[in-house]
Design brief:
Radius of gyration: 24 Å
Oligomer: single chain
Number of helices: 19
Structural class: alpha/beta
Strand order of the largest sheet: 1-12-11-7-10
Bound molecules: 5-phosphoarabinonic acid
Helix content: 40-55%
Length: about 475
């Protein structure tokens, strides 16, 4: 494992009375064992097939890479259509591993098509996409595990129609490939009928745990991401998360510290990467943490209304926007810093005599400055008695990104086990999906429409 986990600043020894005592960890041995067994004994089973996603064979990887290369060589733009767990994994891996201004690079430097991950149905955004891509040389990966999600299906209909108009029916089919559950859902049926290439999502891999399945791997192959190293890192983290002793298992330990903090009223979890390349890792974390742990009932059916609200923050940018609150506001947060030891580039701050702004910056590097600011923020939070811990990547590579993603998945699974909830369902999201179907007039949702119509709003409470 290349990642390092420093939880000193969660402890009483660092932050005083708001911290956790060593004895709190020691006396919960039964809880650790139960949470560990809950996840590890079900590894690869039921909704935990995600634990096995990094185990695919070399020949499967080769096949994906060959497919990816064939698309990469002919595409001017590559567009991913998906939402939630079918988009956030690809988004954060691309953000981490592609050039930060990938689309603006000249083609020979890019070595891959322009990339668009369309995870919203704002009509202006769809129009803007159509304005910038050349539809005739663009390729589309439609990703939806259920094959039923309105947002993704509507995007698919619009773009397939545009392709057919531009290229004719036969050629248009070659520009779409689909990632969905084999044998299930509306998209699978359409894909079969139209003859699109189909990639399967394993039945027991839920959206937010699917980044290392075909949901992520197909787009990664197209864009030339080093899949082998990504999965190698994920496997290394899987091994670390299978260590039974809480003191050496990073995900089990931080899941426990987080759930214990929740009991102490720390109901907000701030994810604060100090690297632009990891900015959208915070989005990935926000979804997996919120959708997995925000639950009304526990496994015994008892009402718990639990969860910890995730918040995203970017170092150093948000030092100038949110850190004041984190340092002096309510003691209701745990801050996770994601640090990077060594950045992919080094930028010197010139020692230019003509610009007289004092000597304190001159001759240093942005690399030194960003890490100094992270340590300074960590110091200020710690001094103010605020719970925080730091996950350090030696550098941002496919391998360390694979480790980080797997850590988030295990941390979430262990946290759900400590909370004794169903981590892998999302009844709150499903309710919204059904209400959308009803409002848009889908057959079979007539009762839901009546329920919606009966939800009256009083004029007295509307200000115009
Ligand atoms: O994590 C989840 O299950 C959700 O966020 C889904 O990924 C999201 O709702 C999209 O679902 P689907 O992939 O079925 O289109």
């Amino acid at each position: 494992m290349k990642l390092k986990f420093d939880y000193n600043n969660m402890m009483e020894s660092s932050i005083g009375s708001h911290g956790i005592k060593q004895s709190d960890i020691d006396k919960a041995q039964k809880l650790h064992t139960a949470a560990f067994k809950d996840v590890i004994d079900n590894s690869g089973k039921g909704w935990q097939e995600w634990t096995d996603t990094p185990l695919i064979s070399k020949s499967e990887i080769d096949e994906l890479n060959a497919f990816g290369k064939s698309v990469r060589e002919k595409a001017s733009s590559f567009v991913v259509l998906g939402i939630g767990g079918s988009a956030l994994g690809p988004i954060c891996v691309f953000n981490a591993l592609l050039h930060l201004h990938h689309n603006e690079l000249p083609a020979q430097m890019r070595k891959a098509p322009k990339l668009y991950v369309e995870d919203n149905i704002d009509p202006e955004r769809m129009r803007a996409l159509l304005d910038v891509i050349d539809i005739k040389t663009s390729y589309f990966n439609v990703i939806t595990k259920s094959g039923e999600t309105s947002e993704t299906l509507s995007q698919f209909l619009i773009l397939y129609n545009a392709l057919k108009k531009a290229l004719g029916e036969k050629a248009a089919k070659e520009h779409i490939f689909v990632t969905t559950t084999i044998g299930k859902g509306a998209l699978y049926a359409v894909a079969q009928k139209e003859g699109f290439k189909i990639f399967g999502v394993p039945a027991g891999v839920g959206g937010r745990f699917s980044v290392l399945s075909n949901v992520g791997l197909v787009p990664f192959a197209v864009m030339g991401v080093d899949i082998e190293s990504l999965l190698y890192g994920a496997r290394a983290m899987r091994t670390a998360c299978e260590r039974p002793d809480v003191k050496s298992n990073p995900a089990l330990m931080t899941a426990y510290l987080q759930t214990l903090s929740m009991k102490d009223g720390k109901n907000i979890s701030v994810m604060m990467p100090y690297a632009d390349s990891l900015r959208t890792m915070a989005d990935f974390y926000c979804q997996i943490w919120a959708e997995s742990l925000g639950k009304a009932v526990d496994k015994s059916g008892k009402t718990v209304n639990c969860g910890q609200t995730p918040a995203k923050s970017l170092g150093v940018t948000d030092q100038h926007s949110q850190v004041q609150l984190y340092t002096e506001g309510p003691y209701d947060k745990v801050v996770t810093f994601i640090a990077v030891d060594s950045f992919g580039d080094r930028v010197d701050i010139p020692a230019d005599e003509s610009a007289d702004i004092g000597d304190f910056l001159k001759g240093h590097t942005l690399n030194e400055l960003i890490n100094a600011e992270r340590k300074a923020t960590e110091f200020a939070l710690t001094k103010a008695g605020r719970s925080n811990f730091t996950v350090t990547l030696p550098e941002v590579t496919a391998e360390t990104v694979g480790e980080l993603l797997m850590y988030f998945m295990y941390e979430t699974a262990f946290a759900g086990a400590y909370l004794n909830i169903d981590t892998f369902n999302q009844p709150g999201v499903e309710e919204g999906k059904k209400a959308t179907f009803a409002m848009i007039g889908r057959a079979g949702y007539e009762e839901k429409l009546k329920e919606l119509d009966s939800a009256k709003k009083l004029d007295a409470y509307i200000i115009k």
